[in-house]
Write a structure and sequence with these properties.
The protein has a single domain, classed as Gcn5-related N-acetyltransferase (GNAT) (Aminopeptidase), CATH 3.40.630.30. 29% of the residues lie in helices and 33% in strands. This is N-acetyltransferase domain-containing protein.
Length: 157
């Protein structure tokens, strides 16, 4: 597997991955986190310079957002971050399911970029919580987004 930056030409395939991910989330008890239309094509196009693809034999195995930047939602959490050093963030991880371990591969790649990585997931997203713990992330607390305090904050240092 290899990681490459996404481009606008990948937008159609990326949106297909997210459609499949929303279906998986609904089928696994997590219908609220992304709803019916998150992330939108407009959002992905806006963020395309921070979108990455995990490729396996010429096919997309996983899609994710990565940037070495602060996240406004992470400024105040009900808990405590492991440190207050500059960090990277990963958002909107979605695997196609064609290769086992693709999402772990992406998180390992992102961590190697900064060695201080923060992520979050929804409290109903049990598969992502298990993945984060498997990849060495520690639960740090919760925070509010979109009027709900159901977001779980994780960090790996």
């Amino acid at each position: 597997m290899e990681i490459r930056k996404a481009s606008v030409q990948d937008l159609g395939q990326i949106m297909q991955v997210y459609d499949k991910a929303r279906k998986f989330m609904r089928e696994n008890g997590n219908a609220e986190q992304w709803g019916e239309d998150y992330p939108s094509a407009e959002l992905i196009e806006h963020d395309i310079d921070k979108m990455y693809l995990c490729m396996s034999e010429g096919r997309i195995a996983c899609v994710f957002y990565y940037a070495a930047e602060e996240d406004e939602d992470y400024k105040e959490i009900n808990g405590k971050w492991l440190n207050e050093e500059p960090y990277g963030v990963v958002h909107r991880v979605a695997s196609t399911g064609i290769v086992r371990g693709a999402a772990s591969f992406c998180l390992d790649w992102a961590y190697a970029q900064t060695l201080n990585l923060r992520m979050d997931t929804y409290s109903d997203n049990i598969p992502m919580q298990k993945l984060l713990e498997k990849c060495g992330f520690q639960y740090c607390g919760s925070f509010e987004r979109l009027g709900m305090d159901k977001w779980m904050a994780y960090q790996k240092i």
